[in-house]
Amino acid sequence: MRAHLARLLVMEPDLLLLDEPTNHLDLESLVWLQNYLNTYSGAILLISHDRSFLNELAQRIVEIDQHKLISYRGNYDEYVAQKAARQEQVLAAYKNQQREIKRLQTFIDRFGAKNTKASQAQSKRKQIDRMDKIEMPDSSERHVAFRFPQPERSGRKVLELKKVDHAYGQTVVYRELDYTVERISAPFWSVRMAPANRRS
Description:
Elements: H1 2-10, E1 15-19, H2 27-38, E2 43-47, H3 51-57, E3 60-65, E4 68-73, H4 76-111, H5 118-130, E5 157-168, E6 171-185, E7 188-194
Helix pairs in contact: 4-5
């Protein structure tokens, strides 16, 4: 990664496209790269999950939200504050629009069948149709949910070794070792070692 970045930076391009450039960099290399990019005269399009790195370098953050690109000026911390304020504004606008739609629809439902008010009801129906509908802002945080299935319960005798020998070259550690592991009740286990011939 360091060699690739060095080759790229020596070329001094007008635009740098960097996708997770801090991956696989040690701290010294990361600090050097950050300082270099702070003095870089060209434009940088950067993708990164490193929040402190973004706070040092970012001047504009573009987010994909509800199938739209939304641009925020400033670093990551400023983006978080601006996004929260924007969501509040969108939510207020959404609620106002829903109230207006409900008011118009109430008039349509009440007077749509009356000859004297039919044209007004039709006008209000067109008014609803012409509205640029505001989507409900999605303020819920995304969570990844997963679970590990409960494994099948083992038998009472979990492990059994019989007449096991072990040696390092000519040095015998043990001979004819009998070894049994039994399940008592989860999560406790019982270990029993039968007497065996042991030589030092």
